[in-house]
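Deliverable D5.2: sample structural annotation.
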Amino acid sequence: MRLGMRIFLVYFLFVGLAGYFLLSTVREQIRPVVRQSSEETLVDTANLLAEILHDDLKAGTLAQGRLPALLKAYGLRSPGAQIWGLGKDQVSHRIYVTDAHGVVLLDSSGEAVGKDYSRWNDVYLTLRGQYGARSTRSIEGDESSSVMHVAAPILDDGQIIGVVTVAKPNQSLQPYIDRSERHLFTLGLALIGLGLLVGAMLSWWLARSLRRLTRYAQTVSAGERAELPHYKGGELAQLAHAVARMRTELEGKAYVERYVHTLTHELKSPLAAIRGAAELLQGDMPAAQRARFASNIEGESERLQQMIERLLDLARVEQMQRLDDEQSITLASLLEALLAAHGPRIQAAGLQVRQQVPAALKVKGDPFLLRQAVNNVLDNALDFTPAGGALLFEVVRDEAWVAVSLFNQGPAIPDYALGRVSERFYSLPRPATGRKSTGLGLNFVAEVMHLHGGELRVQNLGEGVRVSLCLPLRRLV
């Protein structure tokens, strides 16, 4: 299982359990809190009624006064109230009064007059000077039918002469409890969902950051060029820089070792030729032969110089992970400058050169590297173009690439060599001299194009060869 999924599952479990326990705890508290609030209101109401009923109860005129008619009218009222969006169309209080012995003298429901309520806790406890309250179910076994009763003593000179009880069905409170639970449940689910969304985004970000670093390490370990992922501080940035330093140390050692082996192998041939010519020059020989051997030494020395210089250029490019100096480059101006530099050689060979690159075409890249790359391609084409042949610079564009191509008349590249011309130290004999080059020119070009996000293409075309330097369209200015 992926690390991001593991982190998300742990976060999901934590948020889910925390949200469940929080919702359960709060939900369990809603019902008692609502009932406690209602009970507190009933206490105030009962005590207010106790003071109102005192005179009638003491005088014995409770049943003959206006109170029975008032309570009956009260029971028939329709408040038509909207309490926070919930309608209330009937009153729900029941009020009854008992004497000092617990016998019901007055009942707003008209059901219990004359009955002995002295055994009910609300009356029983109140008559003994305690707080009297009870909750009784109207239907046995049905908790929703419970009714809350709160009593208050009717006092006369400190003596209890009666009890007034105010009752309220808990069912009348249920809509408010249900609404609170629904709101709480909706809000809780939204908060849990938001928490999970944040957790998913955090897991995705962390996993994505680690995947970028993993891809970088895998790409580098495969010997390919890669850019170090950028992180804004923190442990990930430290880890990325540590991996980059490790790559530099390990790659540098392997790179030096590989180049030492390669350079040693490639230097053997020209050094052997120089040594052989030098040994022969120590003896007596005709002047013409001596001049020929001296020329061989000079030629091999020049070849060694070119090889070292190109190896240094190639090593610098291969070690670059990204472009350090990107500028807007006018391709037509670059080509004209290179053609002018090679003008004497082109004129001496009688070559026909056409340059069909639009004057306004600009690309973004490293000016020095692109100039070197195009120069290598042009130098290679001049080696293989026969006297009087043609060279053509043009731009080819498709849906993904813009390519600067150079076509030169001349012999086609053999099929066995077509896929290897950009390999390091691989070279074909030059038609004019029969000698091979350092084999580093096109390899350098391929590295430069790869550094620019492009590629080098070499193909036989008609009576010659076309070499294309392909750049992604995003590099067009």
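Annotation notes: The chain has three domains: 3-178, 225-322, 323-477. Residues 3-59 form the longest helix (57 residues).
The annotation will be released with the project's public dataset once the embargo ends.
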